[in-house]
Prior knowledge:
It is built from two helices and two strands, in the order ααββ.
Amino acid sequence: MNDLGASFKNLVGGELANYTEMNKLAKKEAVRRMKFDAAQQGADAVIAMRLNISTSGSTSGIGNSDNMLTATAYGTAIKFIED
C-alpha cells in the first residue's frame, strides 16, 4: 500500500497491514544485529535489552513519503565466568 492509501486508511480506521509487517521486520532486524554484534565481541548473552521504535520525517499532508521508521535494540553484552 502506498502512503496515500495508508493515509486514507488511517483517517477511516483499521490496521495498516504493510506498515505493521514493516514494523515487525524492523524490530526483528534490530535484535538480530544486536545479537550479532554481541557475539562478535565474545559475549555469551545480552541482558537488560531494550527496543526503541521511532519515526521521523515530515508529516505535512496526506500521501507524504518522507517518513522513516527506525528500530534500535540495545543491551548489556555479558560473558559467563566459570568458578
